[in-house]
Design brief:
The chain is of the alpha/beta class. It has one domain (20-252): 3-Layer(aba) Sandwich (Collagenase (Catalytic Domain)). Strand 7 and strand 8 form a beta hairpin. It has helices at residues 2-16, 52-59, 68-81, 161-171, 222-234, 242-252, and strands at residues 21-22, 32-37, 62-64, 90-96, 105-111, 124-126, 132-136, 142-147, 152-156, 209-210. The structure holds zinc ion. Zinc ion binds next to helix 4.
């Protein structure tokens, strides 16, 4: 009996020293993710996007190849923050997909639907974990219960460094930090331009695992990302918060 209590206390303690919100069922089984840059339409068929037409219809954006300069910025930003030592999960490869065997992740540019209005409705979008599938179980509960088995994708409208790290955080399996109940007390969440709507807050799923402490500096937190991204892009500092790193370490080291 005593041993059980002690174990519970210890487990509780080790969880509370981390933060972060994770989808444990769709995390990668490895920590080295082969990443390539989209350069041919046929590559969409490897992913849930299927084709240019389906991407426009189902996901509201036009997939494009990033420019050379943009590819370089994305790669350098990711390589700096996600390292085998720091995060465990890290991203390798970085060639064009037509020169990559068995990619795990395809990175592309996202343009808007309407010609000349090239802005899509998002700055970036990415899968959760290894192409985690959000679905309903027999009881009607939503969750990320399984992976699709398809190649993961990540689409960027902007190559702002904060946005880049946020989207790669999703690929690593992280959810939005502002869905934590303590975000309502975070002043940044109530600032102009922050798109967190407390009346209609994005809901966690039955599969979502919360580590207990709220992290107002998480790059997965809109309240931080959306108020700090211009500063972050100008500076040459690490972007994942200490707690983001600890959360990734808990799963990938
Ligand atoms: Zn996000």
């Amino acid at each position: 009996m005593k041993t059980t209590t002690l174990f519970t206390l210890l487990a509780g303690f080790s969880l509370s020293s981390q933060a972060g919100i994770v989808e444990p069922k769709v995390l990668w089984d490895k920590n080295q993710i082969t990443t390539c840059f989209y350069d041919k339409e046929s590559q969409l068929a490897l992913t849930r996007l299927k084709s240019r037409k389906d991407t426009l219809k189902d996901y509201n954006f036009k997939p494009r190849e990033l420019s050379r300069r943009e590819k370089k910025k994305v790669m350098e930003t990711v390589l700096k923050d996600f390292t085998p030592e720091r995060t465990g999960i890290h991203f390798v490869g970085w060639k064009d997909c037509s020169k990559t065997d068995n990619p795990d992740l395809i990175v592309m540019e996202a343009k808007g639907k309407v010609p000349f209005l090239t802005r899509p409705t998002f700055n970036g979008r990415a899968v959760i974990g290894e192409d985690g599938l959000a679905e309903q179980d027999e009881q009607g509960n939503f969750g990320f219960f399984q992976k699709t088995g398809l190649v993961s994708h990540l689409a960027l409208y902007t190559q702002n460094k904060a946005t880049v790290i946020h989207e790669f955080g999703h690929v690593a399996g992280l959810r939005h930090e502002h869905i934590h109940e303590d975000s309502i007390n975070d002043k940044n969440c109530h600032k102009f331009g922050v798109t967190v709507d407390f009346e209609n807050l994005e809901q966690p799923f039955v599969t979502t695992l919360f580590h207990t402490e709220y992290d107002s500096f998480s790059i997965m937190n809109y309240c931080y990302l959306q108020t700090q991204r211009n500063r972050i892009d100008r500076e040459d500092k690490l972007i994942l918060s200490q707690k983001d790193v600890e959360t990734l370490q808990a799963y990938y080291q």
